[in-house]
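Researcher: Next entry: At1g61320/AtMIF1 LRR domain-containing protein (Aegilops tauschii subsp. strangulata).
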Amino acid sequence: MQQHQGTFVEELMIKFGYDNRLVNHINTWVAFAVSAQTKSLALDLPPRDLLVPQADQYRFPVNLLDNRSIFWLRHLQLSFASFELPPQFNGFPNLRTLDLLLLRVTRKDLQDLLSNCINLEWFSMVRCHLNDELTVVRPLSKLLYLRVGHCKITKIVLNAMKLKTFMFYGRLYPVDLGDVADLKHAVLDLYTPMTLEHALSVLPKVLPSVQDLTLRASFELKMPLWMKTPCKFSNLKCLDLRLNLNDKEDGNILSLASFLSVSPFVEKLAIYVSILLSPIDFSLL
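Model: Predicted structure:
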């Protein structure tokens, strides 16, 4: 950095195994990024041993970002860090992408952060555990891409009316994306078992405008062979189902045809079924 000749740095990535003895050095690099009007800043600071719980995480120094540097920042990635907003935080007015992995942050700070990123187009949060709901009242009017993966959250409420892609991985909990008029792609990879009845009654409410849907989940076919629901996928053209079924459910597999009743305009349907064998009770032998 001392040998750097230019005034500006377009992109800066800091990536190595974190040691809290290096905090001052990392802060110096962040300060350098601020002074160089960096547009893309990435900090990836995993603990040296990923199997050992890490009490100490690098705390991203938001206080080093003045109004001018915040104006320049377009892309921010924070991995294996913590984040705390200062009082009177005015947001990142020109931030386009925000990528969070194993970020330690409170519900309020994350909500305030998102509410003050008015030009955000791409947002990903993976393994960020709020243990609470995430509600962003201010519309995310430019958000096009949203990924939520393996986060301990109880509920998500957003207003992302221009969202085009939604990726969700993890346990099933309530999600409200607002009035999304033209959702192109959605992937739901759920490791919470769900009934077919729940899928047909809830998913069309959450993703009514989706055009291309991939659903991976474990299903329980506890319903009649054919079910009618008032909610439908009004724009769905491609439906890809990748389902795990218990071997006791294979006799009711035709009930999967109920997906057609909520997808009246589907043009391409693919169903992949894995039959899971029930454990053997040897006491009955």
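Model: Note for the record: The chain has two domains: 1-165, 182-285.
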